[in-house]
Amino acid sequence: VEAAVKAAKDAFRLWSSRSPLERSQILNKLADLIEQDLEAFAQAESKDQGKTVKFARTVDIPRAVQNFRFFASSILHHVTECTEMPAMGCVHYTSRAPVGVAGLISPWNLPLYLLTWKIAPAIACGNTVVAKPSEMTSVTAWMMCKLMEKAGVPPGVVNVVFGTGAKAGEALVCHPDVPLISFTGSTLTAQRITEKSAPHCKRLSLELGGKNPAIIFDDADLSQCIPTTVRSSFANQGEICLCTSRIFVQRGIYNEFLKKFVAETKKWNTGHPSDPTVDIGALISKEHLEKVRNYVKKAQAEGARVLCGEGVDSLALPPGNQKGYFMLPTVIAEVKDESCCMQEEIFGPVTCVVAFDTEEEVIERANGVKYGLAATVWSRNVGRVHRVAHRLQCGLVWTNCWLVRDLNLPFGGMKASGIGREGAKDSYEFFTEVKTITIKH
Ligand code: NAD
Question: What's the stated role of this polypeptide (predicted)?
Answer without folding.
Answer: Catalyzes the NAD-dependent oxidation of 2-aminomuconic semialdehyde of the kynurenine metabolic pathway in L-tryptophan degradation.
